[in-house]
Each structure stands twice: as C-alpha cells, then as structure tokens.
Hints:
By secondary structure, the protein is mostly helical. 75% of the residues lie in helices and 0% in strands. The chain has three helices and no strands. The protein has helices spanning 2-65, 72-88, 99-117. Helix 1 packs antiparallel against helix 2 and helix 2 (72-88) runs antiparallel to helix 3. The model is unreliable at 125-130 (pLDDT under 50).
Amino acid sequence: MADLFDGIVMAEQRFHGEGYQEGLAEGSHAGMDEGRRHGALHGARMGSEIGCYLGFALTWHCLLQKCTDPKNSKKLRALDSLIGMIQKFPYEDPTYDKLQEDLEKIRGKFKQVCSMLNIQSDFRLGHERSSLTF
C-alpha cells in the first residue's frame, strides 16, 4: 500500500523534473536561434555602416589627390587615418572586447573628416528619406 502512494507522490516530482529538463532544452535551443538572428542582423548593419565609411573615404581620398591645393594635405591625412582605422577593424572576431569602442572611434573620425570637408555627416537611410543613417 505504501508503494502505491509513493509512486503517486514521486510521479509529481518525476514529471516536474522531466518538464524542467524539456523546458530547459527547448529554451536553450530557442535562445540560440534568437541570438544567431540578432547577431546576423546587427553584424550586417555594422558591416554596412563601415562599408559606407570606407567607400566615402576612398572616394574623397581619390578626389583630393587630384587637386593641387596645399590645404588638402590635412584632409588627406585625416582620410588616411580613417581608412587605416577601418582596415584594422576586426570584422572576423565578434568576441573582440573593444569592438564597440573601435566602432565609436571610426564614427568620430568620420564626423571629423566630414567637418573638414564641409559635408553634413548625418546621413539618413530609410523608407521615409533617401539618405543614409546608422
């Protein structure tokens, strides 16, 4: 008789334990999927932003090299610095501990270069506007 009641009492604990393990496995799997999607989305945004900066810098570098104005040397040095920062950026290492810090430095250098070139640095990219933003 005691064994009969033990089975009933222990069933609740057993089902609770099994439910916990199933929920943990399901939650871990869902979390990994969500994390992968989130990382891919933000990685793509970051890559697009940095690619835009690099294209901008290379284009202006090319344009300024053709001009003989001596004032362009400071602008060219700033562009070289921005290009160098972008080329050293660790695209392949998402675990790099200074990723956000380095990205902020690139953004700051980009704004500095835009200021030197007398260009608005606040681009917008969206459905409501036809310019870039990041």
